[in-house]
Amino acid sequence: MPHPDQADATRLWVAPVLDDRRGAHRPATAPTSGTRTAATPPPEGRGSDADAEVHAEPARVEEPWLLITETILTPDGGSWVDGLHREHELIWATAGSLTVETDDQLWTVPPGLGIWIPALTRHHVRAAPGTLTHVTYLAPERVSPSWGAGIAGVTLSRAVHELVLHNKSSTLDDDVRLRLQQVVVDLLVPVESASLDITMPTDLRLRSVADAIVADPADDRTLTEWADTLNISSRTLSRGFVRETGVTLTRWRILVRMRQALLEISSGRSVAAVAHRLGYANPSTFTDLFRQTLGHTPAAYLRSLDARER
């Protein structure tokens, strides 16, 4: 019984490009044997589960298989809104870095980590130049995550990486392939730290502040300066940000900076350069905040990346 992964051991898709998150979609096709055209994103809005089922793309994982993995190359970087998928998705990268955004969450995906997206969840993906993105689709009828039904950060060990790639082999017996896929599922564990996800405000005024900080994490305008920009009181801005994100504006900006730090450190930039890029004149201040937010120093994080590669 052929498994979809074994049809082309070097399936390499070029990421679709979206000129604007809600604009026209310009698809790209695969540069390898066989062509895949990216599906047009379904209409915006949550809608009901039944509506989501109507707009969802056809299932990729056929019975009795548990999973299938596609690979996306973005040599110049890319940004796209992913359509609704009937399967769960695990989005991860082996080179470069990703940002995944859902309706109200922003996630960083450096190498060694992945983001679990439940079935029928629309999301927006940004890939840095040179990123090699992997999307593992898992059949919801046969795979139930141990951490519940929500979005989660997932540790991607070297063993999981190798097993997923080995799943593409055309020489595996069916029972061996199923056991291998079950081991992959069993090895997926959620990241204990919640610092990878950033809650995005939904109020349009607050969202404009959030989007500006995400675009330039070094922006150090004060609460009063932002309030003046929005023509509202500092008290209104402060209360609104805590209500919608759970943290103060200052704390939220630190989380955004640490998210960016993960991306840049994993891409090979020095700690001093990253600290300066994010607006910290003193690298030791940056290191202290990194440790307070993520539970370890930048140096320890670098060592963990090196260990994953071995």
Automatic annotation (TrEMBL):
<dbReference type="GO" id="GO:0043565">
    <property type="term" value="F:sequence-specific DNA binding"/>
</dbReference>
<dbReference type="InterPro" id="IPR018062">
    <property type="entry name" value="HTH_AraC-typ_CS"/>
</dbReference>
<feature type="region of interest" description="Disordered">
    <location>
        <begin position="1"/>
        <end position="54"/>
    </location>
</feature>
<dbReference type="Pfam" id="PF12833">
    <property type="entry name" value="HTH_18"/>
</dbReference>
<keyword id="KW-0238">DNA-binding</keyword>
<dbReference type="InterPro" id="IPR009057">
    <property type="entry name" value="Homeodomain-like_sf"/>
</dbReference>
<dbReference type="InterPro" id="IPR018060">
    <property type="entry name" value="HTH_AraC"/>
</dbReference>
<feature type="domain" description="HTH araC/xylS-type">
    <location>
        <begin position="207"/>
        <end position="304"/>
    </location>
</feature>
<dbReference type="InterPro" id="IPR011051">
    <property type="entry name" value="RmlC_Cupin_sf"/>
</dbReference>
<dbReference type="GO" id="GO:0003700">
    <property type="term" value="F:DNA-binding transcription factor activity"/>
</dbReference>
<protein>
    <recommendedName>
        <fullName>HTH-type transcriptional regulator RipA</fullName>
    </recommendedName>
</protein>
<keyword id="KW-0805">Transcription regulation</keyword>
<keyword id="KW-0678">Repressor</keyword>
<dbReference type="InterPro" id="IPR014710">
    <property type="entry name" value="RmlC-like_jellyroll"/>
</dbReference>
<keyword id="KW-0804">Transcription</keyword>
